[in-house]
Specification:
alpha/beta; single chain; 7 helices; Rossmann fold; 189 residues
Length: 189
């Protein structure tokens, strides 16, 4: 579904990482700085760890931190073919300023092909199906090549995210998920 080919990875021993052990690690790291969380993730999972961005303020802060700690880290973004031109300009600027190594994750289906298969403006008629095709499945396929990923999720963003751990088990992708900014507020970003 995605245009990426799996990349060979160095072996990373993740046998000790279970939902329970990750939950305990999250508790142990509570109160730690984002830099500490990132270093822990890189120490335990590099090179099999990637960062996700949607090009919001949290992502930019994390890209800055990642570029200082482990600049070779891949930062992926979901290209739905519906991104604004400004998003691509921002991406290019971040490459210049921070040296970010971006990887574009795409569904492999163009908007015209999607319209032929599912009808015009699927994002308006059936947003859940559109998100499955253009976001959920491509991301899941991409993440299957790694053992951990980093997000910019914060607890104060929504009620659903209020209990987000700094480090947690991602049940959907069966991997470790780092949320280094979880304890930050919008003012701190």
């Amino acid at each position: 579904m995605t245009s990426q080919q799996p990349k060979p990875l160095q072996t990373v021993d993740t046998t000790e990482w279970t939902p329970e052990s990750v939950k305990q690690t999250g508790r142990d790291l509570e109160g730690s700085s984002p830099e500490t969380i990132l270093r822990w993730g890189f120490d335990n999972f590099a090179p099999s760890i990637v960062m996700a961005t949607w090009f919001g303020p949290e992502g930019i802060v994390l890209m800055h931190l990642v570029s200082q700690i482990r600049p070779e880290t891949i930062v992926f973004y979901l290209d739905t073919d519906l991104l604004f031109a400004h998003t691509y300009e921002l991406r290019d600027e971040l490459v210049k300023r921070l040296g970010v190594r971006f990887e574009r994750v795409h569904s492999g289906i163009s908007l015209p092909e999607q319209a032929l298969r599912h009808g015009d403006a699927l994002w308006n008629r059936d947003p859940d199906s559109c998100c499955q095709i253009r976001k959920v499945i491509p991301q899941r396929v991409f993440l299957a090549n790694y053992h951990a990923w980093i997000t910019g999720i914060r607890r104060d963003q929504t009620a659903f995210r209020a209990n987000t751990a700094l480090v947690e088990w991602d049940y959907a992708n069966k991997m470790v998920k780092l949320n280094p900014l979880a304890a930050w507020t919008s003012d701190q970003v």
